[in-house]
Amino acid sequence: MVKIYVMDTNVLIQDPQALLSFEDNQVILPVAVLEELDNLKKAEGEKGRNARAAIRILEELRLKGNLLEGVRLEPHGIVRVEKNYIDVKLPEDLPEEKMDNRILKVCKGLAESSSEQVILVTKDILLRIKAQIIGIRAEDYTTEQVAEYEGQYKGRIEVYVPEEKFKDFKKKGVPVEEVYLSDDQGNRKVPKLEENEFVILKADQSSRKTQLGRVEKGMIRKLEYRKSTPYGVTPRNAGQYFVQEALMQSAEKAPLVIIKGMAGTSKTFYTLAVGLEKVLNNPAGEYRRILISRPNAQFDSDIGFLPGDEQEKISPLMRPIIDNLEQLIDSSEEERYKDEMELQGKIEEIFARGLIQTEALNYIRGRSIVKTYLIIDEAQNMTPNQVKGIITRAGKGTKIILLGDTNQIDRPMLDERTNGLSFASEYMKGSPLCWQVTFSPEECERSALAMDAITRL
Known about the structure:
Helix content: 25-40%
Largest sheet: 6 strands, mixed
Structural class: alpha/beta
Strand order of the largest sheet: 3-4-2-1-5-6
CATH superfamily of the largest domain: P-loop containing nucleotide triphosphate hydrolases
């Protein structure tokens, strides 16, 4: 049965291709949506870029036919602009001049005049509630949604292995079909392991015996960099050993690393430590520089209105990076802050030499970045479209590291299922070029209070 989907503007702002994602159904664009796209087409950042992309798609459709009558898509579906139903009555407490309510009038008019089911598609939760009030079915845009957090790929697994295989692990590795999981009744199950998935191996006859490994071409092999201490930092838990392994690998072997975890698990700290090791202590010159970008909820839309040049505008957002650098540049906790000017001078020298650079997310897109250790911090505040744009910027010799905590999303219209970090994690799962690690809450290293808060709050 053909359905009628009425599209809200915020769906197109997240994914301009959404018009083409509804199979053999009708997609209706109220005139109010066209007006909102027109108002947004000159906006800074992602909003303006996606508004313009959606407008270009509409222009391509206009050239194929009359949008008021409906233009057929290939291979199926119809897109139509709806200019009627301006006289449809809404409840008195829904003022007609609001754009959202103009969209609701179209939905109500279509529902009353058509035998097909009418569904409003919007990222706006409150608009979905208002639609329910007037008897209109409303849905979130789910094309880019991934599983809920508990069901998302973690990049690591804990399994059992027969004692005799465990003994030979360091020399020979273990075939993936030899490991198993055990349920409460003692039943064994062979898990499906992804390429590059990290593994905690436990001997099945003595569970205190453990080894750390990684899946590679059907075998679980030992970690190559388990004894490394990048920039003097030593791993403290399994998660940090896995992160170290992924980050220390060359950009050719591991060009994309995705690290997820709650606050205090040392995601940014460890990533910077390996970056400094590679740039400052590596005579081979593997990377030219460390490039850091840290998006947040207001960043894309507000940067053009902040005072100063680009570096002055983004410096407040980079303060967490500076905090981590202070700990890495001077590892002695007792001596670190005795001379604040000296510590600040050391950090300024690194930036002055161009070894570490910070850049607005908007300015990274559209470039080809070569031989760069590229860190995107707080990546959970990116849209799927943004993360696609960043990953496709990787030139030869560049390593991209996406860091974030999907429990701390500050951007409107995004959640744990629709943010760019989760999107990249799920769709890059199993890629031989992508290595992933999710820290467990028990691996918080910030402080006893931080650990307690993570588990309680």
